[in-house]
Amino acid sequence: MARVGLVASRVTTAAADLADKVGFDKVTLSAVARILGIAEPSMYSHVRSVAELRKGVAVLAATELADCIGEALAGRAGKDALVAFSNAYREFARTCPGRYTATHIQLTEEELSRSTGHQRIFAMTMAMFRAYDLSEGELTDAVRLVRSSLHGFVSLESIGGFGHPRDVQKSWENGIEAIHVMLTEWPSSGAAR
Amino acid sequence: MARVGLVASRVTTAAADLADKVGFDKVTLSAVARILGIAEPSMYSHVRSVAELRKGVAVLAATELADCIGEALAGRAGKDALVAFSNAYREFARTCPGRYTATHIQLTEEELSRSTGHQRIFAMTMAMFRAYDLSEGELTDAVRLVRSSLHGFVSLESIGGFGHPRDVQKSWENGIEAIHVMLTEWPSSGAAR
DNA sequence: GGCGACTTCCTATGGCCCATAGGTTGCAGC
DNA sequence: GCTGCAACCTATGGGCCATAGGAAGTCGCC
Q1: CB 3.0 to 4.6 Å from A72: which of A84, A155, B19, B119, for a disulfide?
Q2: CATH code at B70?
Q3: Residue A193 lies in a domain
Q4: Domain HTH tetR-type spans what residues (chains A, B) (predicted)?
């Protein structure tokens, strides 16, 4: 029988593409095997389990998201950077919903520290926020809130959570604007804390 | 053989409890059947499919969440209401993670309009926001953003998304404070739009 | 060239889950 | 007591995850 001649990365990209097409939770060993044209148990020559396959997608997706954000952020600062970051983030979530979901699965401390994508996204986020005048603790609080807002927005959007006729794009733009104002006027910013 | 004498609501609460215990995605017909002490196919006397079972949990959970929020909101207004709402929301998500997840599954327009829980949560949210001076469009934008922030925060928190040593409770409190400021200073608030 | 080791891939099997088909039994109402 | 329904059953099949154990292609080395 003809060898397909797979490499691990090919398996992961196939899984990631499938995730974007049918949803991350429907990424299954048998489905990926079908796509690759091999029998189901043959998958175990490339991955140890379905969980590991999904973690592979997570790491890949984080790398790609980091690339998108890095590109958007290049040469920008302040509010300009915030808008570019947010738009790149949402764009990624919309075009690659499966990959986006994957970036939010639980990884161990160990796995997370080895995922350069996750690390880079974190670093770029922190760097962007230094434009605002926030103390150490405030910085973490603000990062957590903004991250929550962006993640929440694109998550709710993806599941059709915004039923009101109001244009979602408009809400997004105004929301980012409001977040910028919030960061500028962060409570007790500048005061001792 | 002794009849268990089930009613549909008993099946749904068992499923909801299971969801809180092991995760909403692990709510399975066979697991619920085991808990109830009946054979797997007997489940089909009570629900049409696993999807319908999960939708039942979603409707139940929304009702309970609406109750929690309603109780927290009683007699409060303005910032006080925002804080009470947010805390009740997060408290629910923490104590009933499976139910919380359930409230975010996709329902049809039809199902949504018949879920009084979902309706009540929406209505209470809108009512709470009337304390802030926002135009029609701004109101929707603000509701969407705050909903995103709260949902995003509790979601990220539940998956261990906040790795930094900074106290998460502190971030939460300061975040709500910042959201209040943001709503008060909403961009172009009061201006023609 | 040919031998061995590794890798890729296979069939067979079993467990768990969803779902349907078709039968049995308890109970309510006449 | 009989009828009809609702609650429950066994049997079966399909999809998925996973392991066991074997076959075949490929590479290095003599």
Answers
A1: A84
A2: 1.10.357.10
A3: no
A4: 5-65
Any domain includes B40: yes
Give distance CA A2 / C1' D23 (Å): 13
* Whole-number Å distance between alpha carbons of A166 and B118: 19
**Residue B192 located in a structural domain:** no
Side chain identity at residue B154, one-letter code: V
Tokens of A119: 């690390």
Q: Is residue B53 part of a domain?
A: yes
Q: Which amino acid is at B120?
A: R
Reduced to 3 states, what is the DSSP secondary structure of residue A96?
Answer: coil
Residues of chain A positioned with their CB less than 8 A from the CB of B174: 138, 141, 187
At residue A9, the pLDDT reads 82
Number of domains in chain A: 1
| Best CA proximity match to B164, nearest among A139, A64, A92, A52 | A139
Query: Which of A103, A144, A158 should one mutate to test binding to chain B, selecting the residue with the greatest count of B CBs within 10 A?
Result: A144
pLDDT at residue B1, as a whole number: 35
pLDDT of residue B193: 44
- The whole-number Å distance from B171's CA to C2's C1' is 70
Question: For residue range B97-126, what is the model confidence (pLDDT) as tens digits?
Answer: 999 999 999 999 999 999 999 999 999 999
Structure tokens, B133 = 């001076």
